[in-house]
Automatic annotation (TrEMBL):
Its EC number is 5.2.1.8. PANTHER family: PEPTIDYL-PROLYL CIS-TRANS ISOMERASE, PEPTIDYL-PROLYL CIS-TRANS ISOMERASE-RELATED. It catalyses: [protein]-peptidylproline (omega=180) = [protein]-peptidylproline (omega=0). GO terms for biological process: positive regulation of transcription initiation by RNA polymerase II. PROSITE patterns: PPIC_PPIASE_2, WW_DOMAIN_2. SUPFAM superfamilies: FKBP-like, WW domain. This is Peptidyl-prolyl cis-trans isomerase.
Amino acid sequence: MSISNVLTVMVLVSSLTFNSILTSPLNLKVSKFGSKSETGLPEGWSIKKSRSRNRNYYFNESTKESVWDPPAGTDLEKLAAFEAQNKVQASHLLIKHKDVRRPSSWKEDQITRTKEEAVEILRGHQQRILNGEATLGEIARTESDCSSYKRNGDLGFFERGQMQPAFEKAAFGLKVGELSDIVETDSGVHLIERFA
């Protein structure tokens, strides 16, 4: 095989790998939405996520039809129960440190504190919340290193697979109204409060 043929094969393989990386999150997302019996959708339908509108839609695999509202024949109670188990609304308070993937925030151009210092700061905020001195939202408004500070830390509704694994596990493990202990992710250290 000539060098040009080898290079052509390498480019094709690289292209296929790149394309599978681009499409795999959507494919993985679909598989996370469970079986048809769990979702209450009629046979042939699945739940997908619109990237442009950041909301779910319903897709029929055989007809390639897509609709925003649940298709005819959907067990709406089962669908609502499925969505409730796979979607939460939470707020969080994020304190970054120098070793996170993006060590800057709206408050600081360059964050230099250590992880231990970030945890100590967050423990202080946690104690204030537990003592009833302030709410997570009140503290997040002035102290969070996340852009969600503008909404008192509110992240809105999110589904499984949208957040970093440790954050997702903690958020979905909380009861409504419950505050997490400190959760560590690649973004920093968080306190999470679940609302729905």
